[in-house]
Amino acid sequence: MPEQRVTRVIAIVTAALVVLVTGVAWSKVRSFEDGIYHVFAPSLGHGGDDGALDILLVGMDSRADAHGNPLSPQELATLRAGDEVASNTDTIILVRIPDNGKSATAISIPRDTYVAAPGLGKTKINGVYGQTKEEKRVSLVESGMAPDEAEREGTEAGREALIKTVADLTGVTVDHYAEIGLLGFSLITDALGGVKVCLKEPVFEPLSGADFPAGPQKLNGPQALSFVRQRHELPRGDLDRVVRQQVVMSSLAHQVISGKTLSSPATINRLQSAIQRSVVLSSGWDIMDFVNQLQKLAAGKIAFATIPVLDESGWSDDGMHSVVRVDPHQVQDWVGGLLQGQAKGKTEELAYSPGKTSASVLNDTDINGLAASVSEVLTSKGFSTGKVGNNDAAHVSRSQVQAANADDVGAKAIAKELGGLPVIASTSVPQGTVRVVLGNDYTGPGSGLGDGGSRATLARSSNSGSDKSDAPPPSPILTAGSDHPECVN
User: Fold this and answer.
1) Partners of 64 in beta bridges
2) 8 A C-beta contact, residue 426 and residue 449
3) What CATH number belongs to 355-460?
4) Is 121 exposed, middle or buried (0-12, 13-18, 19+ CB in 10 A)?
5) Fewer CB atoms inside 10 Å of the end CB: C or N, the chain?
6) 378-422 tens-digit pLDDT
7) How far is CA 453 from the centre of its chain?
8) Could you read off the pLDDT of 60-94 as tens digits, one per residue?
9) Nearest Cα to Cα of residue 372 among 381, 359, 361
10) Cα(27)–Cα(244) distance, rounded to whole angstroms?
11) Domain(s) of CATH 3.30.70: residues in the chain
12) CA-to-CA dists, residue 432 to 199, 377, 383, 484, angstroms
């Protein structure tokens, strides 16, 4: 059966941004909102002391629209969705819109994240909604409640359980809730005229329908579904799939913010129709206040990130299910630090990802294979590979990282990965690249020292020295705001 899990887009954010970039009257925003299906979620907060809004965006693996109407056979075929009934929430994103005019943040939670959920114990987070809903529905039907009413109350219980689970995991109180079904992503992508993406390598994966060349390209709605649906044959599996989701959302957000695709009434009408058919929104959400906050947001400054994981290929406690293992305390600390940094406007640092930097590694010692070993370490962390070999330039007295300027974000990241090497400014190093020169003093990752190894061992094999952490490298942090999306796996 084709892969069922697909991503969703920030639909209500898109609707509000239409006002900012096109000058559409408030009555038009109200017409957007009036046609959206609203739900009650009692556990939602009302904004923190700083006035920031924390919004939980959920993508439902559903074969119906937001109003409960089943998709047509033609729609199911176009989306390669099949007819399976499902209530999984396979896209879970926490968005913070600040009140201080700084950058917004969108934090992805992988669907297989193993969490403690109210009433369920430890389980995958994408099943919290559906499991809770079904248990509640069955219990109510058995107690004599009408099936339709039991379905509604079960659905409300599922939403509540997911909201509480995300709050417990991240330490962030959710203020608003937005939900979109299977069809919505395709409709909204088409309404905006498609989405720009870029692939490092060509892909062909029949289960998802992904069949794309390498390089930059523009996808329509169904193609975009296949792009974000692919999970097999990716280097990091579901984590790379999450990065694809973020790339698509970043590209769509940039299109809306830039206003390039919203210059015609026809586009706006298509977007309104897509949103009204696809979006479920929590009640009590003052959209005008939301629009006012977005007006303070510098265009394009939306950072997309993924929570840190311990093991992307872990197992549940009973050994029966493959899961993504996380440390809740680490997640809360990371989320807190990310949001604080975003509130201070540290856009460049937060937007940085290792793939943006090409790292050359040069060996200035007589140790065979040292440069190749250290280069493997950097590649495993996501940095692009540059020249690897011996140092033919001036001899260095100590190991160092050279860059066009000493404040280069990529150089600092590489220096940190290699044990705190100094960053030296060099006019001979082009922008966007870093040159690592290894001297006889180097004892960091890939040296064979500090991990029970030895340089003698390294010298015997140039392929033996990659020090890969047990935990996978963190997913890159992306930002909306470019006509040239970053290339991904």
Assistant:
1) 70
2) no
3) 3.30.70
4) exposed
5) N
6) 988 888 888 999 998 888 989 999 998 888 888 999 999 999 999
7) 36
8) 777 777 777 787 788 777 777 655 566 788 789 99
9) 361
10) 35
11) 355-460
12) 19, 19, 11, 16
